[in-house]
Amino acid sequence: MTDLAQWLSAQTDDTDLGEAILSMAAAGAEIAAVLREAPIAGQTGLAGSDNVQGEAQKALDVISNDIVLNHLKANAAISILVSEELDEAVNLSSQGRLIVATDPLDGSSNLDVNVTVGTIFSVLANAGGPLQKGRAQLAAGYVAYGPATSLVVRIEGPTSIFTLSNEGEWVQTVADAKVPAASGEFAINTARERFWDAATTGYVRENIAGEAGPAGKRYNMRWVGSMVADVHRILMRGGVFLYPLDSETASKGGRLRLLYEANPMAWLVEGAGGRSTTGTQDILEVEPTDIHQRVPVILGSANEVKRVEDWYGRG
Ligand code: FDP
Questions:
Q1: Could you tell me if the CB of 227 is within 6 A of ligand 1?
Q2: Please, where are the H alpha helices in the chain?
Q3: I want to staple 267 with a disulfide (CB 3.0 to 4.6 A). Which of 47, 140, 190, 197 is the partner?
Q4: What's the pLDDT tens digit per position in 225-266?
Q5: What Cα–Cα distance (Å) separates residue 310 from each residue in 56, 281, 306, 314?
Q6: Which atom of ligand 1 is nearest to the CA of 105?
């Protein structure tokens, strides 16, 4: 049985990086405990404030952000925290070598229906500042709060999955996650079809045409509407996740955030042999210009991502 600390010491000599991941794992374990009892404590509702994206904050968004902030404050290796819930980047230890960018509680519109949500994080070197390409990430991960609490993490090598035991230990349950290149499952919010571009419409229509269509096989559709849950399914059994640029999100650059949603997920999927794109560019190559920047996201099984790219290539 391998635990998280053992895995980290085998993956990297950088003890600061290992400590950063352990801090996020500890924050995740604390958030999991809060979420388990949140309906009893009456915490699934709104906090009464908006975040910088103009989205209503849930009480648990704010609580989760505070938990992450407290864990990172206690870690001298962390210089800066970028959070979806905070307008500005927060300066922490002046000696710190690492930046953490996080969505402390992703998928929070699912909280009141007890569906999987998660904490997503990305670790960068302080020297480059927060606005670095995803390719420069030192590590990334997420904690999924589902029937089991899972930590999915990658430094440079494999994407590995740990499960939180009742004793509070992170036990490795998948050493090397693999996203199969071929898949017959796609995930997109089809209620947005009227906003889609020609590439998204073309790809989805081919899938729906099934065996008789140009793809020549049957597809199934799955959409939890909680990115961590949708990406976790893809990491476990393949598929493709799409939140493309559409006519409604175009002026904002997309729906999902680059630094703390798209980049860490792209890093994890790539470590498992999958791929990611905005439609026209590898997500990990996008140059950020703002800490809360949005980006179109298509990621998962390599053959499906390639089909979407081919559709975008048709102009
Ligand atoms: P949420 O607003 O609930 O935090 O991060 C944004 C996100 O959820 C993703 O987790 C999810 O994939 C997406 O929004 C769902 O968007 P739609 O409501 O447009 O389907």
A1: yes
A2: 4-11, 15-41, 59-73, 198-209, 227-237, 263-271, 302-313
A3: 140
A4: 999 999 999 999 999 999 999 999 999 999 999 999 999 999
A5: 37, 12, 6, 6
A6: 4
